[in-house]
Amino acid sequence: MSKNNQQAKSQVTGTPRYTRLTICTLLLTCITHCLPTLAQGSLPIAPEKALQARQASYFLMGQQMARINATIKGDLAFDKPAMQLSADALDMLGRLVQENYVPGSDQGNTRAKAGIWKEMPRFKQMAQESQVEIVKLREAIYRADLAAIKTAYGNTSKSCKNCHDTFKEK
Q1: What are the pLDDT digits (tens) for 82-94?
Q2: Residue 18, SS3?
Q3: For 16-64, what is each residue's pLDDT tens digit?
Q4: H helices within the chain, ranges in order?
Q5: Do 82 and 68 meet the contact criterion of CB atoms below 8 Å apart?
Q6: Under 8 Å between Cβ of 136 and 152
Q7: What predicted TM-score, i.e. pTM, was given to this entire model?
Q8: What is d(CA 170, CA 107) in angstroms, rounded to the nearest whole number?
Q9: Pick from 160, 169, 89: which is nearest to 128 by CA?
Q10: How far apart are the C-alpha atoms of 75 and 73, rounded to whole Å?
């Protein structure tokens, strides 16, 4: 990649474009923070680590949604491997992030509303509904069906927004 391409700014966000290596590095970092969560039965995760993993997951999910949205809008050319990477990342992160709402992780720099811990079954249900939409988006991306991608992206965005409106501080 040329130096000019490395320094290119995203037309969508104004931030430097992420290379596949950068995205993979971020994903690995997130996975590293999330792995203790996968073994919760035998290795408890510290609340501050859960909060960090949760925030990293949401950041990465936002980046992937932005890439998909930019492609849908035509701001980025359709790059099937890049879109598949984004879809796979969303699917994985969506599954992992749900497990990082552990007791005590409501302390610190969090934008989760206090009610999330009181309504955990409702939150988990909404998160699962979002995950179903993410899977549909992933499937549409793998088929490279732009019309289906647009529909699935819209449904995924609505599902995410519904949960954010209910459980995220503005």
Answers
A1: 999 999 999 999 9
A2: coil
A3: 455 665 666 566 555 555 554 444 443 678 999 999 999 999 999 999 9
A4: 3-6, 20-38, 47-73, 80-97, 115-118, 120-143, 146-167
A5: no
A6: yes
A7: 0.76
A8: 17
A9: 160
A10: 6
